[in-house]
Amino acid sequence: MEKDPERFPGFDAAVASAMTDEVERYFDAIVFDQGGTFADLFTAPLGFVNAVTAPYYGLDPDAFGDELEPVDLDPDQRPGFLTRLGFLAAFSSRELTSPILRGAFIEVGVLGVDIPADPGDGPIPPPDLDPRRDESRARGGANLGAR
Description:
About 35% of the residues lie in helices and about 5% in strands. A two-stranded antiparallel ribbon has the order 1-2. The chain has one domain. The two termini are about 20 Å apart. The protein is mainly alpha-helical. It comes from uncultured Methylococcus sp. It holds the Pfam family PSD4. InterPro entries: DUF1592. This is CAZy families CBM2 protein.
């Protein structure tokens, strides 16, 4: 998991590793430790946070050490594994967040639905003339660390 350092300052190997480890710990806790259901994977507000990942969740990094600790996150903001940092970062590009990649994973990987190939005969969309698009995308990427 590699991110553009200009768009995602502070995102380094330690952050990527902690995010990946959190997803693994999340699944282990829900499935094996708690005997949770498939639905619980999508709804449990459990997170595993350390000083490195705390700022991404809007938590005080000084309240955490180097090891990931279980934390109850806000269930309105962070229900289930689809809101875990590791999932969000893994299903985005190096430069931008990507709801499309995440949606495609859910369609194919979770729901088992095949996404048909583009037939190639659709209309060509007009060029994007909104000069605020890049600014908006930059803000969206910068917000990764704001939570």
